[in-house]
Amino acid sequence: MTASASMPSDPLPLGSGISDRLSKKASRHIKERIIEALLFAAAAFSVFVTIAIVYVLVKESWVFFETVPLSDFLFDTQWTPLFDDAHYGIMVLLSGTLTSSGVALLVAIPLGTIIAIYLSEFAGFKVREIAKPFLELLGGVPTIVYGYFALTFLTPILQKIYPDLPGFNLLSAGLVMGIMIIPYVASLSEDAMRAVPMSLREGSYAMGATRLQTALWVVTPAATSGIASAYILGISRAVGETMILAVAAGMQPNLTFNPTEPGATITSYIVQVALGDLPHGSIGYQTIFAAGLTLLLMTLAFNLLGYWLRKRFREVY
Amino acid sequence: MLKAADLEAIRAIIARAKRWDLFFSLLGILSLMVGVLTFTVLFVDMAIQGVPRLSLDFFTSFPSRRAENAGILSAWVGTVLVMMVTALSAVPLGVAAGVYLEEYAPKNWMTDIIEINISNLAGIPSIVYGLLALGLFVYYFGFGQSILSAGLTLALLILPVIIVATREAIRAIPQSIHEGSYACGATTWQTVSDHILPYSSAGILTGVIIGMARAIGETAPIITIGALTFIAFLPTAPFAGDPPAGLFEWIFAPFTVMPIQMFNWTSRPEAAFTVNAAAAGFVLVFMTLAMNGLAIYVRYRLRKNIKW
What we know:
The complex is a heterodimer. Chain A has helices at residues 16-67, 70-75, 90-122, 125-140, 143-161, 170-194, 198-206, 211-222, 224-240, 243-248, 266-275, 283-312. Chain A is mainly alpha-helical. In chain A, helix 3 packs across helix 6 (170-194). Chain B has two domains: 4-51; 55-305, Orthogonal Bundle (MetI-like fold), CATH 1.10.3720.10. In chain B, helix 3 packs antiparallel against helix 8 (188-217) and helix 3 (73-104) packs across helix 10. Chains A and B meet through helix 1, helix 3, helix 4, helix 5 and helix 6 of A and helix 1, helix 3, helix 4, helix 5 and helix 6 of B.
């Protein structure tokens, strides 16, 4: 008897049952909408973060540029914002940033690229399985620890080679920074190389090319766009790195491109000011926002360059 | 037929090519070794300097003007509290954003903007986040130089890491799971909460741990918001003191964290403080390594266990 109730030929039960279900569905629909709206808000939050960053930096810099003309900021050759005879030449800080980043990239780009080619084309499965997590660990060491290492270990060693090297210098900071950036360059470049289809390699081997020839003349060109964006990421890491420079490079503003001298960078200047007790709203307080805006524009430019390179040199298979 | 001379020449070419291959292999291993060696030297040097300084007193003492009495009590308590605020704000927000982008987002300009924006945020130097926090949290919202300001700053910093990890974890789930769930009449949220989130939880956890390991070592943004370097007291515990503190009073307390304590000691000229810096650095590296190691382990287990 009861079995017949579930037979398809039976008419659907009318009355409260079905309308209950329908109304339940409506509430379910509303709940779904609310959840979707909440999740959207979480995703859109990141856009507000960007807007907030730009707003805060521009707002404080605006006040700064009302007192200091932009031409002074760009072309003055002294940076002494906290002295009575105040000068605001960002060039001085930029020279420190560029010099230390230059040293870092001289270390990170060749080593990172060689490691990437080695891991992607030469190393066996086991080596890769051990090396990749290790590189991640190397990238995960806090930068303050690298700074300590540059100051207390590398600088004394370098001083044995160049006895004239001062205790604070851009060279040892830059070298350690280069080591820190290797994992970023290596791991992104390797990903790009591994994404090159196997058939290209097989074609190359079939023509009698060796591993090295295949790696250098087939895989690397095919992965150019990915490798380029790995380099760009390395550059923006170097430009934005703070603590290594604050600890080991000395924080004295110095217009120089000589890495064996001490120097301040945009980032280490911000740290220096933040460590002091500058009153909120003073011109010294606003200089760090102007410096930060310069830094943001630089990294933004690098990001756009990376985006363009990816588009320009992307190989589609 | 090949002449013997030609054969010799071909053999010579092959031998030369093999030598170059070998040379490059060695170069690759050597380059890797530069990284390995630096890391080993860094770690061993710090251990030799710092480990003798590690004792129970070091963990239970406040910083002091005398190096031998100084400890990291306020620093590690500060780090733990700041990390709590960071995790509680960044994880829900990051996972929600990741879920939205993978499961809900329509293909339109709005989604494109959000995606480009997230990858841009990941490239912004951490000190710029510090400036944002200084202008926004410290002065505009009036949170002051507190645990709350620091925790939220680091949360913004690691948000992209968590979003990207969430998206990758979700993308690893086969489409058939979605389709099966929808075919049973589940709504999007039911699919997400009953299937997608549980199956991607290990992957998300990996991302969260890596993000937190990064946050623990971040120094620059916290210095920028003006954290003090010399703190000889702990934030009031909930309901402690007279008059009794509220449950959340500690989040507005001044604080210091491990990397700032280390920075403070590193920048002092006396050798005794350098030893303290080494000891603090050792603890810090140990914590980040443990977290990274945990993340690698979780990912390894995940890859081994899940077979769709």
